Amino acid sequence: MSSSRLYSILGFFAILVAVPVVVATEVAAPADASTPAEMQLDFANGLFRDGFFEEAVEEYEKYLAASPQAPAAGVAWYRLGEAAYAAKQYEKALEALTKAAELAPDDETKQHASLSRGEVLYFLKRHPEAETVLAALAAPEVLPEMRGRALYFGGKASQTQQRYDAAEKSYRSLLDALPEHALAPYARYELALVMLAMNDLEKAAV
């Protein structure tokens, strides 16, 4: 499975989950909103939507430096985290997403921030922490798109630590409950590797 393909999927997820928050905030803003801070935030949002993640990171940082106590600061931290994650600036993403989880204006944004934070911890090779964060988002009541990501990266975190039983459970849960999820083919491939590591050659033939 191509790692570049996986990164492309993750970049798509970043835009998918963050843009609705961007749109909701813009719709709620006054029609004549044109302060320098609001213009800065709008500019950063536009860069993010267009996939210019590194540039968006810089603009969100400028906004937060100038308006740390603004009502939109919590959402801006979240978008900064997602942009940094998409740009593979993982340390910066972790800091922003941790802040976003604390300041998020609603439960949904907080949940999205926690999910991306768990994935970033995985990429930083902080696998036990990633496992803990992602386990809380793998429950059946979590939105399917989010749950699939939590199960996949939770499985990867377990697999890297050679906790093969836990990894198998995560991958099978994803494949059984969410067979159409974008990460399902990757989960199937990783499950085969887990079965090989467990010397179960019959189950590895998937």
What does this structure look like?
The chain is mostly helical. Helix content is 76%, strand content 0%. The protein contains eleven helices and no strands. Helix 2 packs antiparallel against helix 3 and helix 5 packs antiparallel against helix 6. The longest helix has 26 residues. It starts with a helix and ends with a helix. About 9% of the residues have low confidence.
Compose a concise summary of this entry.
By secondary structure, the protein is mainly alpha-helical.
Give the biggest beta sheet.
none
Counting DSSP E segments of at least 2 residues, the number of strands comes to: 0
Strand content: under 5%
Q: Any low-confidence stretches, pLDDT <50, length ≥5?
A: 14-32
Overall mean pLDDT score? 86
Q: From the alpha-carbon coordinates, what is the Rg to the nearest angstrom?
A: 18 Å
Give the helices and strands, then pairings.
Layout: H1 3-28, H2 36-49, H3 53-66, H4 73-86, H5 90-103, H6 107-123, H7 127-135, H8 144-160, H9 164-177, H10 184-197, H11 201-204
